[in-house]
């Protein structure tokens, strides 16, 4: 089991009020699964993503990643898990504007340590080639299109060969054609063995996944295995005529 959440809760205190963002989440995700999380604003999906990404701690329950109980880790331990086992892809790309694509992808490798300059540079190039940007490695973010920026962000997320790739609205800032290309890239990464958990409010994006979780009021209200209704690259073809 890669991900195992048992009765996970998250409570925030706002003045005298207690807000139950997560109200007893039980979830298991196997290696190489592709899971989409959907729900209205305030449903708890972003809080769940923060817990999975070790960006936040649960108030109760346990979260095991690769058999390790993350609720027992120190802040430094959580930072190490984030950097070595989890790749993040955000709607707003979160690239450093003064660094070119290659150096943006190298950053997680620098933070992780234990590699030489040459090894970091070689792996960063490999990841950019993997997402189709071999010819754009020296370009800064302001010289890249939205789709290219997201590809750099995906390459950066893959730099440390993470156990899970967490994507938060990865097509939210992209047009329909570019969104199609990015989702086809996620599909290919999944076929290559990458575990993906993605938050989205778009039904057609969610249908790329094998499982779709629907959340409401801090709970998972449905867990649907998409089966034959899953989108394929052919379903995404758009007539440009």
Helical content stands at 25-40%
Strand order of the largest sheet: 6-7-8-3-9-10
Uncertain stretches: none
Q: Roughly what fraction of the amino acids lie in strands?
A: 25-35%
Tally of extended strands? 10
Q: What is the CATH C-level name?
A: Alpha Beta
Alpha-carbon distance between the two ends: 46 Å
* Average residue-wise pLDDT: 93
Give Rg in angstroms. Answer: 18 Å
Number of individual domains: 1
Main sheet characteristics? 6 strands, mixed
Shape: globular
Indicate the CATH topology: Rossmann fold
Query: CATH homologous superfamily?
Result: P-loop containing nucleotide triphosphate hydrolases
Q: What is the correct CATH architecture?
A: 3-Layer(aba) Sandwich
Our count of helices gives 7
């Amino acid at each position: 089991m890669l991900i195992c959440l048992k009765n996970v809760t998250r409570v925030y205190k706002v003045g005298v009020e207690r807000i139950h963002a997560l109200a007893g989440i039980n979830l298991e995700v196997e290696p190489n699964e592709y899971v989409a999380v959907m729900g209205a604003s305030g449903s708890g999906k972003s809080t769940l993503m923060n817990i999975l990404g070790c960006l936040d701690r649960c108030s109760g329950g346990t979260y095991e990643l690769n058999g390790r109980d993350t609720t027992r880790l120190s802040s430094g331990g959580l930072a190490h898990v984030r950097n070595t086992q989890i790749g993040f892809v955000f709607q707003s790309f979160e690239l450093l504007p003064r660094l070119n694509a290659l150096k943006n992808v190298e950053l997680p490798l620098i933070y992780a340590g234990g590699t030489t300059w040459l090894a970091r540079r070689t792996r960063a190039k490999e990841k950019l080639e993997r997402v189709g940007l071999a010819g754009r490695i020296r370009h800064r973010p302001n010289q890249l299109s939205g789709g290219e920026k997201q590809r750099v962000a995906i390459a950066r997320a893959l730099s440390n060969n993470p156990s899970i790739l967490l994507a938060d609205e990865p097509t939210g800032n992209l047009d329909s054609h570019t969104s199609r290309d990015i989702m086809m890239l996620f599909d290919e990464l999944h076929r290559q063995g990458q575990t993906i958990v993605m938050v989205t409010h778009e039904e057609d994006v969610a249908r790329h996944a094998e499982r779709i979780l629907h959340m409401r009021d801090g709970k998972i209200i449905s867990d649907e295995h998409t089966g034959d209704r899953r989108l394929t690259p052919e379903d995404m073809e758009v007539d440009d005529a």
